[in-house]
Amino acid sequence: MQHRCFWVTDSKLYQEYHDQEWGQPVIDDETLFEFLILETFQAGLSWITILNKRENFRKAFDNFDYKKIAKYPESKYESLLLDAGIIRNKLKIRSAITNAQLFIDIQQEFGSFSKFIWSYVDGKPIVNKFKKRAEVPATTSLSDKISKDLKKRGFKFMGSTVIYAYMQAVGLVNDHTTDCFKHPAE
Q: Which parts of the chain are coiled coil (predicted)?
């Protein structure tokens, strides 16, 4: 049996997410936006809660199409508040719309959101060599820096903890512990 990171439970969904997605470098803007939305909704909740609702989020938010989300009218916002399949937090739903608009602004400024976000790590994932749970940080000076930049641009729910979780999810950092079969060999 392959050993996984400490946070993975016996949930098949969690295991698949860990094995196939978490820490894998993501460069396409569509997936980067999806994780940006999911991480903002996760703030204050467990990630498994978000994974269990991911398909519902996908349906509710037009397959995470940021161009559509950026233009959501008030009626769509109101319908999302009534959707029991997602996290019905008024501020988080509103932030998804605002963040989609700002995501497009970054694309226009940098050519893509991918170029913008990956520039923080010079286009190459940071591979950490953490052995134990206690070594894995919730934030870093880099997540502080990215958070500050995004907040300055108007993004919502982009605290340093959310950003570090985002960095882990999209592979800007690889925090698979050294005993995990997904940790890259040297």
A: none
Question: Which residue type does 89 have?
Answer: N
Please tell me whether 3 is known to bind a ligand. no
* Residue 39 annotated in active site: yes
CATH of domain 12-174: 1.10.340.30
Tell me whether residue 66 is one of the annotated catalytic residues. no
150 is in an annotated binding site: no
DSSP 126: E
> Does the annotation list 18 as a binding residue?
yes
Q: Of the residues 7, 47, 77, 120, which is catalytic?
A: 47
The whole model's pTM is what?
A: 0.95
Beta-carbon neighbour count of residue 24 at 10 Å? 14
**pLDDT 10s per residue in the chain (186 long)?**
689 999 999 999 999 999 999 999 999 999 999 999 999 999 889 999 999 999 999 999 999 999 999 999 999 999 999 999 999 999 999 999 999 999 999 999 999 999 999 999 999 999 999 999 999 999 999 999 999 999 999 999 999 999 999 999 999 999 999 999 999 875
17 is catalytic: yes
Which of 17, 72, 164, 166 is labelled catalytic? 17
Q: What are phi and psi of 69, to 5 degrees?
A: -60, -40
| Catalytic-role residue among 22, 34, 39, 166 | 39
